Amino acid sequence: MIRTPLRPLARVLEARAKGDNPDAIERENLRLRHEEMRDRARQRAEGRLLVLGVLFVCAFTMVGARMGLLAASEPSEPRASAAGADIQALRADIVDRQGRVLATNLETFSLYAQPHMMVDPEQAATELARIFPDLDREDLVRDFTGTRKFLWIKRRLSPEQKQAVHDIGDPGLLFGPRDMRLYPNGTLAAHVLGGAGFGREGVHAAEVIGVAGVEQTFDAQLRDPARAGEPLQLSLDLTIQAATEEVLLGGMRLLNAKGAAAVLMDVHTGEVISIASLPDFDPNDRPLPPTKGRPDDSPLFNRVVQGVYELGSTFKIFTIAQALEMGMVTPDTIINTKSPMTWGRHRISDFRNYGPELTVSEVIEKSSNVGTARIAVDIGAERQREFLGQLGLLETTTFEMVEARGGKPLLPPRWSELSTMTISYGHGLSATPLHLAAAYATMVNGGTKIEPTLMRQNGPQYGARVISEKTSEQLRRMLRLTVSQGTASFGDVPGYAVGGKTGSADKPRIDGRGYEKEKVLATFAAVFPSHDPKYVLIVTLDEAVETSGSEPRRTAGWTAVPVAAEVIRRVAPLLGLRPEIEPAELTGITLTSN
Amino acid sequence: MRSVLFVLTACAVIGLAFWAYRENYRTQQALNVTERLQRDIGASRARLAVLRAEWAYLNRPARLRDLADLNFDSLGLMPMAPEQFGRIDQVAYPLEEEELLPITDPIEVSNLGGRP
Fold first, then answer.
1. Would B79 be classed as within a structural domain?
2. Which of A62, A267, A283, A458 gives the lowest tally of CB atoms within 10 Å of its CB?
3. Looking at the structure, do residues A499 and A548 belong to the same domain, yes or no?
4. pTM
């Protein structure tokens, strides 16, 4: 580039000749040069700004276009990743403790119609009414020829029905896939599983939601796709559940009972191995909840978890346990059992008079109300309440079924001294059989608190200590004596050393005034084997009556006990318990010296 | 010198374009295979679920009980009972097998006939 000199000699000489200042020429030239430089710099900067602007516009256009594309395009599965294996949209299965299926899914189809696409609506309606007898032809014709553009015809189709509809060949009849919840075992463990229904429905899919039982409790977990269909494992055992229900149903029929309930629980882990409530229902076709009548008349009612009953003499063991624990009595202490015992205006009497005095062990064995009431008076209301609270008999259980929240024990409004006495033999306080099972487990397992659970556990629960090891041992011996020579003599199963306590409670009248004369709730709480308890079984029969004798017998010893014994005989081998000879009691050797 | 460089560059571009073209088609091929496999996996899973459901349905305790009752004559199955537990010392030792008698009437055996 040719630079213009700032002081061109020709002009300088010329200026000097004229007498001008040559510096002016230099300044002028310098100014011109600076202006030129400024113009060039501006031009370059403008050019750069333009390029930058274009770049930004391009970049934002790209981002915008991509966003628009993503928003407008149909979602599709990633094609190249292997992640598909970890995500499953199906509701997870429910399995028993050995992995056998209790609830699973089946792919079926739903049938819907788009009448405006139909070729021959009348013919289609006739054919549909022929395939599905429950559909009415006239209604279908009205729907198909009206203004509707869409209607559901059937929620679930069997493959045969689908083929039959296919054969009609009308383009306005369409199928949508549906996942159906299937309970392959029918009525087995119906109350635990509950049932499932459809939530939000679309043409291509429908949401399956749990409506009761564990299906509802664990709904979120079962539907979580991130768990990849990992099944929910319960503590139930299918075989044992089936055997329990079979025996219970037989017992209920033989004894003309209105209802029956049984729960079998592991005393160390709190796992419920089987839980049955009769009458039951088929969860594949769950009946509608009752709108009238008493709730426990409905097959949907779960007697074990929701049924709050006065459980009668089975409660006596808690009174005795507390007295033993407090050191007030020993199993051989003599108690005054003169019947009837009067307390203010009230009289407490025994089923029959057992004489003026019994030992504590015999009070349990013969089930003396008077003896228990006398011990309870000495314990006092406050301490009794505290002890029953420790056993969890005053609160709802933490059992994993939505229905368990409905099983809140009914307590007396005022825990008076009379309440203390009646509660000591199981009247005035109502609890569910499940409460009783957990409390018995606590009594016999060495004295630590057990919470019932439906989930498979890996080891024993180490709950808070409620009674000492020694008291637990003494109670086990009393329970065994009750079966071997007391009120529950029909409960003996050779080889399994059953121990237990009966309870026959008159049912409260519906109008709330006093008790029914001839309606008894018979309960048997069994523990086996009693020298080393592993399981607790509660059997409850509602209004059972045994009619083989000259007069009808309603006490638990004649009704609930034989049924429970049969359950144990059937179930114990399935539990892997080998019959064994009970260790005999050692003859007492007293150290003496002289 | 410069023209050689141009020719080499052009060749390299053509070569790379060819490679990219082939890779593209191979990727598409692989994607199609994956898709088909995943569809197969999905279908197999659905079939497995149906089979499992059917297996559970066929093995439901009520049905097995009825079958055991129906076939009582041939199977003689009873519910498990405490009496069925045995002890290991109740199982008899197997009888010793009788020894083979000495061969008193030998037969000549030769493997010559088997040769070609």
1. no
2. A458
3. yes
4. 0.79
